[in-house]
Amino acid sequence: MGETVNNDWEALFTLFFAAGYLLMEIIQYLIVSIGISGILKKCKKTAWHAFVPVLRYYRISQCANREHEGRVFMLLIFLSRLLTPLLRSSSNSVFGLQNDADPLSKGFLLATAVALGVSICALIYDIRITCGLCETFGRKKRWVILFEIPIVSDIAMLVWGLSKKFQPVGLKEEEKEKGAEESNADLAAIKDGLTVNIRQRTARDGFQEKVLLRDIHLTIPRGHLVLLLGGSGAGKTTFLNAVTGYEPADATIMLGDHDVYKQYDSMKYDVGFVPQSDLMRGNDTVLSTLNDAAILRLPSTMKAKERKARVMEVLETMGLSMLCNTLVEKLSGGQRKRLSIALEIISDPQLFILDEPDSGLDGVVARGLFEKLRAIADEGKIVVVITHTPDRVIDLFDDVIVLAKDVDRTGRLAYYGPVQEAFKFFEKDSMEQVLRSINQKEEGGEGRATEFVGRYAHQLQQKAS
Fold this sequence. Notes:
Layout: H1 2-42, H2 55-63, H3 67-96, H4 103-136, H5 143-147, H6 152-162, E1 193-205, E2 208-221, E3 225-230, H7 236-244, E4 250-255, E5 258-259, H8 264-267, E6 271-274, H9 286-297, H10 304-317, H11 333-345, E7 351-355, H12 363-378, E8 382-386, E9 399-405, E10 411-418, H13 419-426, H14 431-438, H15 449-464
Parallel strand pairs: 3-8, 3-9, 6-7, 7-8
Antiparallel strand pairs: 1-2, 1-4, 4-5, 9-10
Helix pairs in contact: 1-2, 1-6, 2-3, 3-4, 9-10, 9-11
């Protein structure tokens, strides 16, 4: 009887102790969370993220200007919490085994070493982040010691978060350049051409959503050869992927009366894309390479005679008739480019996009290639080209699209229209000078992107009204 009572009391005590321990853990977590939320608020971050496990450490790393370390630290914390139970059990098991040669003992020792290694790495990254936080708040790095002592670190975090004496000085209260206005001018679709209304294109970067493109509205009539110009990171590739439907945006893309996004499966062959590098087999002939493309891209109902006639027509258009029995690997750089173009135009696309087709070609060969593109456009196609040497062939283009990074590092439309009017708009004599004017100062440019983006948006608003 007495033994039963003792067992009941022991069970009750154990339950009471467990409840008390859990309560202390909750209180400690709340204290730390409140402190971190205060720090995040001071650093203009989302305060409630302080109450989300693991994520809060990433936000703290952003406050400390140690975002890379924060991502690694999050992973280490996650691994550490997975391995902690194993670390405890492995310690007990190892010391309980008498036979050191037991394979099970070696396994537990290995697990223990891994867990300890992760914990040590986490400590190192934690110290790096804390050092960065001290720099942000203008405090001496000896605070790092307090932040690494249990319980004391909780109090330190609370003080930093709630005390008005602790304010970030690393976040300079500089007057930020005002962002360019937006046109917000969704254009009506034109019947014979391409209509682009990209409202926004976003992507996830860790736990943040980054805007890659915004407020891009333009129409390109059939028969136009268009240059796509923009500095590094301006969003040229992202723009093309959004237009072709490869990476859809918050946008409406119309090719004539057809919606590229809604009718993607039926329209994908109406859009031709030639990348900078080709994937053609070197041991195939020019003719067999184009024949294979014709079988894949042309309607299966097309008769063999008609398909052959189309292949010969494209060979003639691209100046490859005399090379039809030549192996691809024997072609020159310019000839390979022309064959790459031939593979795309075999299906007679209405929109044709090329990414640096003149890369690696000398001036004479490059001009010959662009003259072929000019001829394709003159057949009533829309041809959009990215090139880093536009001035040597600028006379062949009808229009130019200029993309630029605004003050928020978002790809915006700085200009779209005839080439000669572009020179007047930017007050420059060459496309190289135009590009220099919109590039950031740290990139060797004039840093006037936001100015031109705003000016063009204003013009577009006036046209729309």
